[in-house]
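Hey,
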Amino acid sequence: GFFNMYYETTDRYAAKIIGGSFCADTDQQEKKKEHIVLVHGTACTSLYYQRGSPEHNFLGLFHSRGFHVTMVHLRGHGKSGIPDGEYSIETLAHDVAHVIKTLHPNVKVHLNGLSAGFGTAMATAILYPEVCKSLSGSGFLFDRTRCDIAAYIFSRSFVIRALWEEMKYTKLKAFIATSQGWLKFNLTERLDEYSVPTLIMHPEYDEDLGHTKKMHEKEIGMMPKGIGELVHFQGYSHCMHLEPGGSKLMFDTIIDFLQRREDIEFSL
């Protein structure tokens, strides 16, 4: 069904997509830039990417580089509506693809996500490759069902970051529904169809959540040769963006990835 989906962009406006109709415009100069869409995880919003000074947070770093940045609020999160029905990762991917096609028609964007937001970005890239130029992110597996759920639920970072700090931005119904959705997420059977250059960033202490480096290596091995890359960050946790130097390290790694890849048209 229709619902209000909220997003923010570096055009300094915020608007809503209501039932597929777009109610904001962007100038021609913005349309010439590289576009990146940031997708937050469960139990948080785009505020995750705006913590701290612009010199150190994800939004500020990409904007200063010349990217046009769009940050969505997933259904049930932040200022977006709470529609009935399933909140599967595939459904969230449909929402994200709809925003991209409406904001940036006939333009491919760079997708980046954290945790369930990375899962959403993964699903968007494989289900809607026509909107995606590259994919990067951390904190999720292409087969989420393999993860040690008990470790995830009881991990210190999850409890502190999500339940205590971020839940004020998320409706309980959406938190439960999206959690059920990512527990069923599995795209491994379609990885051989993958066509989008992908950078998986793996913080060391994601191992505590059942996201092992070995699993990510296996996933990359299931993709067409050369499509996927894996980078391991020592000393960082699942919420790496919020840790000193974390956002900058991830940002620099993504820029290096985009500049090196001959299969990505990158103009900045």
